[in-house]
Give the backbone structure.
Amino acid sequence: MILANVRQCLTRGDAQLAMRLIARGSSSEIDALELRLRDEGVDVILDDPRLRGAMLGQAQAAHASPQLFTYVLVRHALRAVGEGDRTMADFVTSVLLHFGQRGRAERIREHDDQVYDTLAALLADADCSDPTRAFLARAHLGNYALWLAGIFPDFIEARRHRRGGPDLDYFDEMGRRGYQLAASHWLASQHGVEPLFTCVAARFGRLRVALNRVSDEVFFSTHHSASKLMRQVRDEARWLS
């Protein structure tokens, strides 16, 4: 099961690299950041508004761990859309890191024989007789919808225009439903993730828009289209007003 645990996996080396990126060679700035790190903890470094630009613009950032790089992008994108809960950034980052692994997005756990390629197939298994599988299918329904709609919104829109596929509203609804179903399963309470899934369900649209920003500005920054612009305007009006 994917958990909100990325920040606790960051190392002292991650913090040191983040500080060097922010300081841009200034020894006095490094000293000041070291003091803040000691007194306030690593979040004060990760939340520094200079870090995202430095992460994307400095060659030294190539040495960043996947956990640090992805968390910084997600955390700052979420803050930009008004989502300040670090647990949300932790969880969304964890989804991206797991689903970035080959084949993981189509499986409800790392080693599983069943491959899912649609949200409908996951929903069909949400009430199967095996309680563990039903719970994982519900959580994966939310995760898979967030991954697809968050990182590949233009693919979804293009497929809708070409083949009449579902739109982003469908993915938002299925994502919320998946997390709501997961939160209502007794295993969610047993594993202590009921509050997490409830929160992600309630904020799904805003989380998806934040991931769209990461996709638009970082992963697919050279892609421009009228439908992309229309999506951005529509989402700004709906989720960020």
